[in-house]
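F.,

This is the one I mentioned.
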């Protein structure tokens, strides 16, 4: 009989703890909602060119990304996996994404003077793999 009362008491304590956790969770959710915060959602995203931009605009942004921006542009060099297709658009997409993935946690944006945008579609193709960092 003593074992049954101990088990009953343990169940009561566990139920009280679960109720307390539920209340604390509700308080946290209402505090976040009151502050206007949304639950964090981080989809996989890549930074690619905006197809509406001209090659001249894209080339300037590409030059910056591969130069002062310190993007990893080695894969878009001749005989490397992302050289083909050899177009400003394709090379710029790779460079923009390299830069953004590298620096987004430090506040970098995917804009390049309105030459780029974010996509949730992986732009990798063949042996050319676009980096993704959560």
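My design for it:
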């Amino acid at each position: 009989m003593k074992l049954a009362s101990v088990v009953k008491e343990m169940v009561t304590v566990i139920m009280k703890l679960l109720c307390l956790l539920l209340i604390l969770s509700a308080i946290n959710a209402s505090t976040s909602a009151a502050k206007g915060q949304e639950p964090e959602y981080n989809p996989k995203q890549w930074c690619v060119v905006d197809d509406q931009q001209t090659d001249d605009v894209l080339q300037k942004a590409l030059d910056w990304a591969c130069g002062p921006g310190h993007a990893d542009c080695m894969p878009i060099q001749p005989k490397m996996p992302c050289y083909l297709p050899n177009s400003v658009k394709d090379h710029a997409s790779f460079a923009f994404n390299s830069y953004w993935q590298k620096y987004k946690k430090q506040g970098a944006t995917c804009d390049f003077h309105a030459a780029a945008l974010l996509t949730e579609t992986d732009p990798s193709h063949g042996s050319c793999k676009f980096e993704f960092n959560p």
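The chain is about 45% helix and 5% strand.

Talk soon.
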